[in-house]
Amino acid sequence: MRPAAFAFVFALLAAGPRPASAEAPAAEVDTRRWCAAELKALANEVCVFVPEKPAPGPRTLIIHLHGVIQPDTHDQWNSQRNAARVGATYGHTVIMPRGRRGIGPKTMESWWAWPTGMDARRIHEDALIAEWTAARNALEQAAGTPFERVYVFGFSNGAYYATSLAMRGRLDVAGYALFAGGSGAPYHEMEAKGTKKRAPIVVAWGAGDPTHDKQQALAKMLKRMRWPHLEIGRPRAGHAMTDEQVEKALAFLGKP
């Protein structure tokens, strides 16, 4: 049986318990630090969690893309600890890179976010992917063995960006899991027409999320395109990522 339910929640919710492998200091006041105190920071502020007991089977890396993060707060630590909790539960390594400022959604332009627009992608995407690749290479070199599977997990704004990455086949990964974000906008379908490698996609949403219709539209688009996917909609969930959704997503992506 899995540990007690964990949920990826929007930044206003509390972080919950720390991963069992490390304890954070009681007082955390340096909001300028990006990575939570118990997590290791690689180059370019890429935070990493390495499980004490890796799961049997293929060695797996999760690239976790956060939602929009308000600067000068500790909201990013909540997101990172929830991501690390996934790693501890399933025995997977997780890296948690940082987005960019100045490209956020309306009224949150100065927050940390991902380049969902074409102009922002042109400016930032190559550097972002280079950071993730460098982090992966550093972990593989330290362990002396490569990752056999790499998944991209996106939450909220991170899920919208992960949708774009998936539709364009921008990354060589084994699958994507999109939680409380992502859309079936027509331009995504246009982008996908030239994509040869269609990595499996999980679309997870809650009916309590005001924008869940966009995720439903994405699932319909994927079905229409015959793109391998799984839709996990929950009537009682909100803008969140539940333990059940995580478990089902990993099971689906882990199929041969």
TrEMBL record:
Domain Phospholipase/carboxylesterase/thioesterase positions: 56-253
Gene3D superfamilies (UniProt xref): alpha/beta hydrolase
Signal peptide annotation: 1-22
SUPFAM superfamilies the record matches: alpha/beta-Hydrolases
One Pfam match: Abhydrolase_2
InterPro entries: AB_hydrolase_fold, PLipase/COase/thioEstase
Protein name (Swiss-Prot/TrEMBL): Phospholipase/carboxylesterase/thioesterase domain-containing protein
Species the sequence originates in: Polyangium fumosum
